[in-house]
């Protein structure tokens, strides 16, 4: 019987999976333990069940998924760490990404064993089929235990979302092709264990998650990278949220222009500046969809601006 123990590690709440089958051995998928306390948590989980790792499977090379790979390889007699070689360049960016989030950089000098699409790995008495799913990263893979109906999807696919592609070497079109041409075609009963968040099933993804992603934009929103912010919002949060945001913006602009001019037609510089900041952001976002990921600044400007626009002016 397949046993899957789940641990949550590091700032990104990454899911680390300990996969075993009752024979005293196990495989670790995406060890994300980023500090000594988390490393000891992993060791305790293994010790409590008398498990010895025989392999580490990496779904991709982002720092939150590789933090513990070097530690495990050193601790357990140079066991193999499997990684698609296309993600070596992604792993080389982990230092810069760690610095960005004020985190300790992972050790990436561990030895990797190459894997490719359609490979079959046998470890701890379990057979894993490798499914290449580029998009989130160029070398991203999923590990499929066909006999048990289990898929470890990494950051390719989550419950209710797909992996982001605005990080280094990500490609949206590849991500969608990987999901639609490989993952969604699996048996509906397959249970999906993603790199973040709760588990789901192929059935649930087919019936609920993907139709929600399609929205009223149909295949366009899913198969073509949105090139403006309102399509991105629609894809990420749904039509009601998009309409609410558009409504607030229209109201903001109408009230803003009225408040920026007095009866004497004098321009109030501070209010005008806030208005133009929000307007400029929205216009730029039509040409640069990555700005959607900087939405906190947008809402900050919108909030301050709205307060200013709704304060009465001297007639």
Molecular structure report:
The chain has 315 residues and is of the alpha/beta class. The chain has 12 helices and 14 strands. A 6-stranded mixed β-sheet has the order 1-2-3-4-5-6, covered by helices on one side. A 6-stranded mixed β-sheet has the order 7-8-9-10-13-14. Helix 9 crosses helix 10 (239-260), helix 10 (239-260) runs antiparallel to helix 11 and helix 11 runs antiparallel to helix 12. The longest helix has 22 residues, at 239-260. It is globular and about 75 Å long. It starts with a strand and ends in a 5-residue tail after the last helix. The model is unreliable at 214-231, 261-266 and 286-294 (pLDDT under 50).
Short description:
This protein has 315 residues and is α/β, with parallel strands linked by helices.
Offer a few descriptive terms.
six-stranded mixed β-sheet, 14 strands, alpha/beta, 12 helices, 315 residues
Major β-sheet profile: 6 strands, mixed
Low-pLDDT sequence parts: 214-231, 261-266, 286-294
- What is the string of helix and strand elements? EEEHEHHEHHEEEEEEEHEEHHHHHH
Number of H- or I-type helical stretches: 12
Structural class: alpha/beta
> Which whole number gives the mean pLDDT?
80
Shape: globular
Strand adjacency order, main sheet = 1-2-3-4-5-6
| Overall radius of gyration | 24 Å
Secondary structure tally: strands: 14
- Termini, distance in Å? 78 Å
Percent range for β-strand residues: 15-25%
The helix content, as a percent range, equals 40-55%
Topology summary:
Layout: E1 3-9, E2 14-20, E3 25-29, H1 36-48, E4 52-57, H2 63-66, H3 69-75, E5 81-83, H4 88-91, H5 94-100, E6 113-114, E7 120-123, E8 126-132, E9 141-145, E10 150-154, E11 157-158, E12 161-162, H6 172-183, E13 191-194, E14 200-201, H7 202-214, H8 218-223, H9 229-237, H10 239-260, H11 269-285, H12 295-310
Parallel strand pairs: 3-4, 4-5, 5-6, 10-13
Antiparallel strand pairs: 1-2, 2-3, 7-8, 8-9, 9-10, 11-12, 13-14
């Amino acid at each position: 019987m397949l046993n899957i123990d789940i641990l949550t590690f590091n700032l990104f709440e990454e899911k680390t999976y300990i996969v075993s089958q009752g024979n005293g051995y196990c495989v670790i998928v995406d060890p994300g333990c980023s500090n000594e306390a988390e490393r000891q948590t992993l060791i305790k989980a293994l010790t409590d069940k008398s498990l010895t790792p025989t392999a580490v499977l990496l779904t991709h090379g982002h720092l939150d998924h590789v933090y513990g790979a070097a530690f495990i390889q050193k601790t357990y007699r140079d066991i193999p760490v499997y990684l698609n070689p296309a993600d070596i360049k992604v792993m080389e960016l982990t230092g810069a990404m760690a610095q960005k989030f004020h985190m300790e950089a992972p050790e990436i000098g561990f030895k990797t064993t190459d894997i490719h699409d359609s490979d079959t790995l046998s470890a701890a008495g379990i057979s894993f089929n490798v499914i290449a799913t580029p998009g989130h990263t160029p070398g991203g893979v999923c590990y499929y235990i066909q006999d048990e109906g289990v898929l470890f999807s990494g950051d390719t696919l989550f419950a209710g979302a797909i992996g982001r592609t605005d990080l280094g070497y990500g490609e949206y079109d590849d991500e969608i092709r990987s999901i639609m041409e490989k993952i969604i075609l699996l048996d509906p009963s397959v249970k999906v264990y993603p790199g973040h968040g709760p588990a789901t099933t192929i059935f649930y993804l087919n019936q609920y998650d993907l139709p929600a992603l399609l929205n009223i934009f149909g295949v366009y929103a899913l198969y073509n990278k949105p090139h403006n912010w309102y399509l991105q919002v629609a894809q990420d949060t749904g039509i009601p949220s998009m309409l609410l945001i558009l409504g607030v913006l229209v109201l903001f602009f109408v009230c803003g222009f009225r408040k920026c001019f007095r009866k004497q037609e004098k321009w109030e510089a501070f209010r005008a500046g806030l208005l133009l900041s929000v307007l400029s952001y929205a216009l730029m976002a039509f040409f640069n969809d990555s700005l959607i990921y900087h939405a906190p600044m947008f809402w900050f400007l919108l909030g301050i601006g709205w307060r200013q626009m709704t304060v009465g002016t001297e007639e």
